[in-house]
Amino acid sequence: MGRSRVSTAFRPHFRPEGHFDRSASHKPILVLEGVMKVYRADAPVLRRVDLTVERGEFVFITGPSGAGKSTLLRLVYRAETVDEGRILFCGRDVARLTDESIPHLRRNIGVVFQDFRLVPYWTVSQNVAVALEVMGLSPRVVRSRVALALERVGLDGRGEDLAGVLSGGEQQRVSIARAIVTEPAIVLADEPTGNLDPVLALDILGLFEEIHEGGTTVLFATHDRSLLEVTPRRLIVLDDGRAIEARAGLSALGGALGGTLGPDHGVDIDVRDDELLEAPLH
């Protein structure tokens, strides 16, 4: 695996006055320490998960439906809070951020969802621009950055099309453009290919690979085993609230997984190796 290119322009902002923590660029971008998330007392979604993600990494997160992939990502961008443990983004405990600081956290984080979450009667450009307009940037800067983001995802010249008339693959490209237009430090992809056919899924994965090559950290949650086998990336497997890791991808787990493919090419995981389960994910 080649070395990731790491951006030197990372300036994380957490406070409304626009100051940034210069020391953050020397810390891991994301650290989970003993993270617990419980909706039902008898079935925790996440059980004391430890995970460290360095700047510039590309990490797959996988597991069966209900394993906690989406929950983990939601905890990172503070859509939910941990019940125990803590999550550090650039050294800052996200659970301790004030309400006014949370939007500034999210400007450092791009999120791509399975269901696109576009406004169908807005144009492509309007859907992407909204992420910049809430930051109060000038119309000239917004137009320039939107055009660049659309070019990066292969939608150059499509800015005036209505989002609702695009194909599923094109709508996901708009969603990705919206996630990267703010030049975030990290992109969280929550099953971004779940509504796409296998060919389009590979195209979308390729886009994330290109974004990563530009220096952006990527966490890509998927249950599609075929995507996990394309490139040997660091892999975190969630099952029964716990996690195992393979830095060289799916094949590195060997006999640790009783993995079988269902009709949707998902991973049905039977974890058998207690030592792997308890290994800290650093």
| Structural class label | alpha/beta
Question: What string, H for helix and E for strand, traces the elements in order?
Answer: EEEHEEHEHHHEHEHEEEEH
Which blocks of ≥5 consecutive residues have pLDDT under 50?
1-11, 14-20, 258-282
Give the proportion of residues in helices. 25-40%
Distance between the termini: 18 Å
Shape category = globular
The quaternary structure here is single chain
Mean pLDDT: 83
Polypeptide structure, described:
With 282 residues, the protein is an alpha/beta fold. Helix content is 27%, strand content 21%. A six-stranded mixed beta sheet has the order 6-7-8-3-9-10, sandwiched between helices. A hairpin with a 2-residue loop joins strand 4 and strand 5. Helix 4 (139-152) packs across helix 5 (168-180). Mean pLDDT is 83; it is low at 1-11, 14-20 and 258-282.
